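Hey, can you fold this one?
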Amino acid sequence: MEILWFLFAMGLLAMIIGPYVMRRRSGIRQVAPGSPDAADPDTYGFVRQEELDIRLPGPDQDLLDVLDVVQHTQDWRAAAQLLAGTPKEGEVRWQRVQAFAGAASLELQQKPGAGGAWLRDWRSESSKDAGAAQVHAEFLVQQAWRSSSAGTDDFRIILEEARTVCGEAALLSPGDPIPYIVELAVARGLGYSNEQFDQVWAKVIDRAPEHMGAHLAALHYLCEKWHGSREEADHFATTSAARAPHGSLLAALPLFAVYEHIPDVILVQGFYQSAVVTKAMEGALFAVHSARADDPMLAHVRHLLILFLVRSERWAEAMNQLVRVDGHIGALPWTHSGDPAAAYTVHRNLAVAGYEANGGTPATLLR
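Sure. Predicted structure:
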């Protein structure tokens, strides 16, 4: 009986990793590093795995410069100045709030009791600064998920504090959507009722109806693994995409809904070529091609497309996205991995191998 269970487990393992180890149809095979037949990502100017920046989905040099100053000096004033000069209704401010909060949270994790002191000083020395309150609220949310397990007393206590700080941040900047976007994560963690969630969501869309980051936060709440269902998440995503104006990346939202409901074990052959997945991918590709080149959420969509395009064996299209985001990988799906750089590099290497196995070269790659 034990041998039967062993054989069954090995069969499942082969079904999961087999497609990525050998692709007979496209001629991909695994070879040792350094082999003359090995695909070389360096040929395409890609950043080495150990040098990939996992803090951001795309470049924001002003933010990176300020982060370096703040973390080196432990002086919060540069962060306050940057946020004060960042429009409150856009995606950039939300990404910067997340980045500052994440930096403080990671510092605290690395140096318990001492790390992230600059954020504590910022809040105490500039209590009326809306940016400080927003970063503090997001910091607490990230701390809850990073330091405790969902549903525990510690988890709830931290998120209750985050909810209080969200309220303080909202009072300091009445027209700003960010306090309510942060509260969407609180709603997910504390299990807000549908009515409570709808009240928060109404405040978000009243202030920023096309905010992609906010829609992603709402989608998480509506997913099957949290407080909704696959049908609710799909309806929310497709409705939002249908209402989005031309050029909006909200057209890519259905692909995020598909990603949130990928089964842990895929037993259906051709899942990534199925009609549902293909339709969502085409919507995301349309959104990418229609969006402004400087849309701050563009990199987020490109990163998710890379995963789906690689797993669908659409090598050239995957490479087309890779050359536009390589270097910064702080986005889904890589951040769901314990080692984002490794997860990204595996897919990048598969894309290079598949592209070259089908006749692609650096010279034929559109940039």
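The CA atoms of residues 209 and 215 lie 9 Å apart. Let me know if you want another pass with a different chain boundary.
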